[in-house]
Amino acid sequence: FKGGDTCEYLLSSGRFLGEKVWQPHSCMMHKYKNSEAKNCLIDKHVVFIGDSRIRQLFYSFIKLINPQVKEEGIKHGNIPFEDKSASIKVDFLWYPEVNGSMRQRIKSWTEGSVAKPHIIVVGAATWSIKIHNGSNEALAQYKINITSIAPLLEKLAINSDVYWVLQDPVYEDMLSESRKMITNEKIDAYNEAAVRILNSSSRNSKAKVKVFSVSKLIAQETIMKSADGLHLPESSRATNAMILMNVYCNKIMKPIDGSCCQPQPPLTLIQKIAFCFFTLSIIGYLIISLIHRNNYRKNKSCTDLESGEEKKPAISIPNVSTLEMLLHCFCKLGLIMTYFYLCDRANLFMKENKFYTHSSFFIPIVYILVLGVFYTENTKETKVLNREQTDEWKGWMQLVILIYHISGASTFLPVYMHIRVLVAAYLFQTGYGHFSYFWIKGDFGVYRVCQVLFRLNFLVVVLCIVMDRPYQFYYFVPLVTVWFMIIYATLALWPQIIQKKANGNCLWHFGLLLKLICLLTCIYFLSYSQGAFEKIFSFWPLSKCFELNGNVYEWWFRWKLDRYVVFHGMLFAFIYLALQKRQMISEGKGDPLFSNRVSNVLLFISIVSFLTYSIWASSCKNKTECNELHPSVSVVQILAFILIRNIPGYVRSVYSSFFAWFGKISLELFICQYHIWLAADTKGILVLIPGYPMFNVLVSTFIFVCVAHEISQITNDLAQIVVPKDNSTLLKRLLCIAGFFSGLHFFSAMQDQSRH
C-alpha cells in the first residue's frame, strides 16, 4: 500500500507469530541453511564494529555459516572468522564507543586502494552511557562523533552494504549496579540522535546507510528473558542475524519463500507474447461485441405508434459464433491471469509466512464438516462411488487440503500423513474412474484421450507461460496425466479386453489380470530403479516437462510416493464391476451392500482398519520412514472409507451437495491456490487486507473460489472448441497444438540463451 521497498519493512517493522517466529511487515523471510549462506557470501568480507551486543550479533551471524562455532573469543578484543571452503571472512572489531578510534578505522577503508568490506554492521552507545554515567555531555559528544562518521559511512555505502544497528531496550530491573545508569530513556535519546543524523546525511544521496531498527522491536518482546537485562537471548540474536542474511542475500539467491528485498522479476519473452495475445483477445472480443450490439439495435423491433403492435425484424439475430466464444473465453482468461500475475509476481500485494497452530487447522476443519452436513441431499443413483459421491469425496478432501496448506500444517507429522492419504485417494479415483470408463465403454478413441488431456492440462500450461514456472512445478497435474496415459496404454494395447468381450468368455478376465500383474511389475521395478526411471524421463521432449531445477529427482520422488494407489484403484474397479455384473452386491436404495451379517462384519473391520491407520499415522516420528511405508498401506484407509461410506444403504443414498460443488472444481482449486490464495508459490499467504487476518482470508477465499469456478467453465467451453468430435477437424487442431508447443519450445530456448 505504501508502494515501498520491502527491505525497509524488513529492517524496521514486524511482529511475532507465536513466541519465536518473526514476521516482517508485508513480506516473507527465508530461513537460510548453512549451504545457502555460504553460496551467498562466497568471496565476501563482512565486518561487525561495536560493543558486546554487536559481538553477540556477530556470533549469531557466523553460526548461520558454521553452526559448530563456539563463543570463545576475547571479550574486549577483535575476533576473526574465516571459512576457507567458501573464502568468506567475517571480522568483529571491538569499538565499544563512537569516537575518534572508530572514525579512524572506518576512514581507513575509504582511502586509497584498500579492500573495502562488502557488508559493514556498526552500532554502539551503552558504553558511552555507562562510562560517563548517563551525562548529557556524553550524549552531545555522541552526536558530534556520529556527525563526523556519517559522511564516511555514506561513502562506503556507495559500493558496500552499511547497516547502523540501533540500541535495543534494556530490562532495567535485572541490570547490575554498575549498569543501572543505562536506562531506556537514555537509549531512546541516543537512538533518536543516530537516526536524525544518519537520515539527514543521506537525504540527498543515492547511497544510504540502512538503519537496523527492527532489533528494537524484537528486544521489546524478548528482553525480559535476558540473562543480565542488557544482552538479548540467543533466539532473538538468531532472528536478527537471519534478518541481516535476508537483507543481503535475497536479491542474490532469490529464494521462493523470501520475498523481502527481492525486486520484481522482469517479464520474460514468453510472458510478453502472452500479454500481447490476451490484450488482442480482449480488444477483439470488445470489437465483435460492439458490432453485434449495433446489429441487434438495427434489427430490433420497433413499436408501431398508432396500433401499439410490434413489427418483427426482417433479419434474425445470429447465434454466438465460435470465434466470439473463443475470444470471450480468452478475454476472461486474460483478466484472470492478470490477477494471478499481480498477486504472485508483481510486488503489489503483501505476502506473509505461514505459522501453524492446532487451532488454525482443526477449527476450520470442524466448521466445514458441520457446514457440509447441512447440505445433505438424496443421490440420483445408489451405486457404489456414484458421481455425486465421488464429487463429494473430492470436494471435502480438497477443502481439507486447502486448510492444510494455508495453516502450514505440513510441519505437524500426523496431519501430514493423513493429507498424504487424501492425495493418494485422488489418484485412487483416477485409477478407478478411467479404468471403469474404458472397461465398460471400450472407447479408446483419440477424441476421449484429447478431451481428458486438455481438461487436465489447459490451466497448468497457461500458468507455466504467465507465471514463468516449469510444468513439473504443478506436480499433481503431471502425476494424474502420466497415470491416465499408463491406464490407457495398459487397456488399449493388444489384446484389448473390455467388459463386453470378457462376458462372452471368462478367460478374458484372466488376460486382464495378467495385464495388471505386468503393470504392477513395471511399477515395482521403476520404484526401486531410480536410474532407469530417470533415463526414461530424461529423454527430450519428456525432460522439458518433468525436470525441476535441472533434474527429474523431484518427479521420481512424487511418483514413487503414491506408486501403487492407481493400480489399487484399477483393481478395485475390476473387482467391483465383476461383483456387480454377477449381482453379488445389492445397490438398491436403503439396502445394505451385502447380507446383514457380511455387511456388519465388513463394516466392523473397516472401522477398525480406518482407526488403526490413523493411530499409526499419528504415532509417526520420522517422515522419511513413514513415506517409505505410505505407498503400501495408504490403500487400507482408502478402502476402509469406501466400505464405511457405501455398505449402509442409507449412507450410500445421500450426499453433501456443498462438498460436491467444490468437488466439481477440485482440480482448479488445487492449482489456483498456488498463486491467488497462498503466495510465493504456496510458501506463504497472500495478504489483500493487512491487519485483519480473518477478513483477509474471507475476501481472498471468495475471490479464489470464484476464479476457480470461472476457470472450470472456461476450460469446459474451450474443450468443446479445441477438441471437436470430428476426426479430420481434430487432426487439424492437433497439428495446430503441436505447432503451438514447437513455438513455445523455440521461444523458451531463446529465453534460456538470453538468461545465460
From TrEMBL:
<keyword id="KW-0812">Transmembrane</keyword>
<feature type="transmembrane region" description="Helical">
    <location>
        <begin position="452"/>
        <end position="468"/>
    </location>
</feature>
<feature type="domain" description="Cas1p 10 TM acyl transferase">
    <location>
        <begin position="253"/>
        <end position="734"/>
    </location>
</feature>
<feature type="transmembrane region" description="Helical">
    <location>
        <begin position="659"/>
        <end position="679"/>
    </location>
</feature>
<feature type="transmembrane region" description="Helical">
    <location>
        <begin position="561"/>
        <end position="579"/>
    </location>
</feature>
<keyword id="KW-0012">Acyltransferase</keyword>
<dbReference type="GO" id="GO:0000139">
    <property type="term" value="C:Golgi membrane"/>
</dbReference>
<keyword id="KW-0333">Golgi apparatus</keyword>
<dbReference type="InterPro" id="IPR012419">
    <property type="entry name" value="Cas1_AcylTrans_dom"/>
</dbReference>
<feature type="transmembrane region" description="Helical">
    <location>
        <begin position="629"/>
        <end position="647"/>
    </location>
</feature>
<keyword id="KW-0808">Transferase</keyword>
<dbReference type="InterPro" id="IPR057106">
    <property type="entry name" value="NXPE4_C"/>
</dbReference>
<feature type="transmembrane region" description="Helical">
    <location>
        <begin position="600"/>
        <end position="617"/>
    </location>
</feature>
<dbReference type="GO" id="GO:0047186">
    <property type="term" value="F:N-acetylneuraminate 9-O-acetyltransferase activity"/>
</dbReference>
<keyword id="KW-1133">Transmembrane helix</keyword>
<dbReference type="GO" id="GO:0005975">
    <property type="term" value="P:carbohydrate metabolic process"/>
</dbReference>
<protein>
    <recommendedName>
        <fullName>N-acetylneuraminate (7)9-O-acetyltransferase</fullName>
        <ecNumber>2.3.1.45</ecNumber>
    </recommendedName>
</protein>
<feature type="transmembrane region" description="Helical">
    <location>
        <begin position="506"/>
        <end position="526"/>
    </location>
</feature>
<feature type="domain" description="NXPE C-terminal">
    <location>
        <begin position="22"/>
        <end position="72"/>
    </location>
</feature>
<dbReference type="Pfam" id="PF07779">
    <property type="entry name" value="Cas1_AcylT"/>
</dbReference>
<dbReference type="Pfam" id="PF24536">
    <property type="entry name" value="NXPE4_C"/>
</dbReference>
<feature type="transmembrane region" description="Helical">
    <location>
        <begin position="269"/>
        <end position="291"/>
    </location>
</feature>
<feature type="transmembrane region" description="Helical">
    <location>
        <begin position="355"/>
        <end position="375"/>
    </location>
</feature>
<feature type="transmembrane region" description="Helical">
    <location>
        <begin position="474"/>
        <end position="494"/>
    </location>
</feature>
<feature type="transmembrane region" description="Helical">
    <location>
        <begin position="685"/>
        <end position="709"/>
    </location>
</feature>
<comment type="similarity">
    <text>Belongs to the PC-esterase family. CASD1 subfamily.</text>
</comment>
<keyword id="KW-0472">Membrane</keyword>
<feature type="transmembrane region" description="Helical">
    <location>
        <begin position="396"/>
        <end position="417"/>
    </location>
</feature>
<keyword id="KW-0325">Glycoprotein</keyword>
